[in-house]
Every structure is written in C-alpha cells, then in structure tokens.
Design goal:
Layout lengths: L5 E7 L2 H10 L7 E5 L11 E3 L4 H7 L3 E7 L2 H8 L11 E5 L5 E6 L6 H12 L2 E3 L3 H5 L14 E2 L6 H9 L4 E5 L17 E4 L12 E5 L9 H5 L1 E5 L3 E7 L5 H14 L7 E7 L6 H10 L3 E4 L1 H5 L9 H7 L5 H9 L6 E7 L6 E8 L13
Parallel strand pairs: 1-2, 1-4, 2-3, 4-5, 6-7, 9-10, 9-11, 11-12, 13-14, 14-15
Antiparallel strand pairs: 5-6, 8-12, 13-17, 16-17
Helix pairs in contact: 8-9
Length: 379
C-alpha cells in the first residue's frame, strides 16, 4: 500500500448497493462512500456524490485509494478501470461485490496491492463468499512476490525472477528456500512446506542448477560471491542489520551517507536489510544522522553514554572518545545494544574524504533470530 493514499473507496449505484455499503462501512475505518447522484438522498451521512457515468470520477480517485470496492458487476468495473491501469507495483486493489452481497471478488492487485486480504475482509464483514483466483492463494502455497512482507521483508528486485519463481512454486517444481537471516515464521512452523519446496540455512553445498529457482532470504550482496546462485534466485531482504554510527559534530550529511553506503558495499551487505541506526544520545540533533534516518526510513535509536560504556565486547575502545562523550565507544556498543547481540558482524570502520576535516564511524551487528525447525527434506 502507498502511505499517501486513503485506505478505502466504496462505490454504490443502486438501492441494494447502498444498503450493502451501509453494512460494510462500520468494518472499514476511514472509508469514503461514493453514491450515484440520483440516490444521494437515501445514502448514509457523509456520502459523496458520484456523477454517472463513473469514468471521469474514477480518473480522479483511482490513484488516491489503497482499495476500491465496487458494488457493481465485474464486467462493468473491468471496462471502467482498464484505461487507468499502470502496473502491479502501483495499481490499487479492486474488489467487486454483487448486488445481493453473495460474493466478494478480488479483481486486481491480489498480492502486491493486498487485494486478496481486502477481499477476505469484505467477505467476513458481509457474510459473503470470497473469490480469490491467484494460483498460490487458491492452492495454499508460497506467495513468492509478497513472502515475508508482513515481517518487514522486501524484494531486492521486484522484476527479477519473481514471475518465474511464482510459476515454479505453483507448479510444484524443485524449489529451495535458503534462509541466511530473518524471522522464521514466513511459513507456519506447524505446517509442512508446500510440495516441491525444500529448506536450507546456507548456500554452501547448494547446486543452483539442481533447482528450478532459489528463494534466498539474506542481507548479503551475493551477486559477486555466488553469481550462479544469484542468477537463479529471488532475493528477499529481511530487516536484519543494525548500524551503530558516530560522526564528528558538523559532518556533512552527504559525506555520512556516502560513508555508510561505501562501508556496507565493502562488507558485501545490503542497505535494504538495515533495520535502524543506533548512536549516543548527545547526537540526537546531529543533522547528518537525522538526514540519513529520514532519507532511508531508518529509525535513530539513542543510548546514554553510561549504558554504552558498560557494554562488553567493544573491540576498539578509545579513551579519547570517552573524554569527549563519556563512553569508550559509540558505534560498536550502540550496534550491539540495538541488535540485542554480544558479537559484532563488522567492527568499527572509519570513513572520511580528502579535505573534509570530519569523519564518521560505522559498526554493524546482525539481529539474532529464532531458528526455524528443520523438516524432512531440508538440506
């Protein structure tokens, strides 16, 4: 869903449709109801006038909502929305309800746009039968294009191998899920993996040509280290990395940004897997850190000096740093505390540029996740 959008738009053009909408609205917080102008007098308070034909109005509303719910026939809706469609990355969900509220039908953006979820929600509210036709949902297998999304995972590239991965899973061909990091509940622990899907926790010993597709959850950039695996994979990015960060007062924001990206690249780590930044509380108003946090959506977690100084496992303590801020280190203990671990993935690295007169430090910790139980057929 898009943050700037309003959650729901509901459209009714018949008396039965208005009655159905009235039943549905209490279950859809923040929904806007659009009613045919001819019937607006019988609509619930707050309903918006909908001129007919609907085409011009939809041109204005289509990109403004996460989900459009039409109490109108599927055929009519398809004809109206067809000229408005762009691609599955941005198109909103579309759900249709028949005039007797017997069926809630997902018409568009079942996965990426959460149309299937909205369809089930509408069906539950109305006591209707949901109709979901995307193959992975219909047969109860992995939804490759949104796997782990509710856990905060993102696809490294929405266009690379995803369609092929969906087909491989739906057709129950040989698929290997390799989980190097991330939450274990991307698939219910008590439920056997779908037919054809095997599980591993490492790429070591995996022949990428043995499988139709690899699904890999990792925070590593494996394109250079494992090119054959990368070529035959859909890559997921769990939010597994915490960046402990420090910088001289007044360091330029663009220098800090370049430093973070350069140091992550040097370590073969993906910025798409960063969960948050962590630093000392005296840096709460440091412009460079605030700018980095805002640009990438990485929350900035702050710790007092005494708490940082008490952390064991600081690999690069500095009495000079302690004289200035009260702790023998900033980036290393901040990363350890925020990640909730005792060992660093990357110890303190220093970055500066010729003539800058300022520098930054970066340490990386990987969050610890509960391991998924290994199953029969796992590697």
């Amino acid at each position: 869903m898009t943050a700037e959008r309003t959650p729901f738009a509901v459209y009714a053009i018949t008396k039965h449709g208005i009655a159905i909408a009235s039943r549905l609205l209490p279950h859809l917080s923040g929904a806007d109801l659009f009613v045919s102008e001819k019937l607006i007098a019988s609509a619930p308070a707050g309903a918006r006038r909908l001129p007919l034909p609907m085409g011009p109005a939809l041109t204005e509303t289509f990109s403004a909502y996460d989900c459009h719910i039409f109490i109108i026939s599927v055929g009519a809706v398809v004809r109206m929305i067809a000229p408005l469609l762009k691609n599955k990355k941005v198109d909103p969900a579309v759900v249709c309800i028949d005039d007797a509220a017997r069926f809630s039908i997902c018409v568009l953006s079942g996965h990426v746009g959460r149309g299937n979820i909205f369809t089930e929600r509408v069906a539950t509210a109305l006591g209707a039968q949901s109709v979901v036709t995307t193959a992975s949902d219909a047969i109860g297998t992995l939804t490759v294009d949104i796997l782990g999304r509710d856990l905060g995972w993102t696809l490294d590239d929405m266009d690379r191998n995803v369609t092929r991965g969906c087909a491989a899973v739906v057709n129950a061909t040989k698929v290997l899920f390799v989980q190097e990091t991330g939450e274990p509940d991307w698939w219910p622990a008590e439920k056997p993996l779908p037919e054809g899907v095997r599980y591993a926790t490492s790429l070591e010993g995996v022949d990428p040509n043995e499988f139709e597709i690899l699904l890999i959850a990792t925070d590593r950039e494996i394109g250079l280290s494992h090119p054959a695996h990368w070529t035959n994979a859909v890559i997921y990015r769990p939010k597994s990395l915490v960046l402990g960060i420090g910088c001289d007062r007044g360091t330029a924001p663009d220098l800090v940004e370049r430093g973070v990206l350069a140091l992550l690249a040097k370590q073969g780590l993906s910025p798409k897997s960063v969960k948050e930044l962590a630093t000392i509380d005296v840096k709460k108003d440091e412009p460079a850190l605030l700018a980095l946090s805002e640009k990438y959506g990485w929350p900035l977690r702050l710790y007092p000096a005494a708490q940082l100084d008490a952390v064991p496992g600081i690999q690069n303590p500095s009495e000079t740093v302690k004289q200035h801020v009260g702790s023998r280190g900033v980036s290393e203990p901040a990363a350890l505390l925020a990640a909730g671990v005792e060992e660093l993935l990357v110890p303190k690295q220093i970055y500066t540029e010729p003539g800058a007169g300022r520098s930054m430090t970066l340490a990386v910790a990987r969050r610890a996740f509960v391991k998924r139980p290994m199953e029969v057929g796992s590697l």
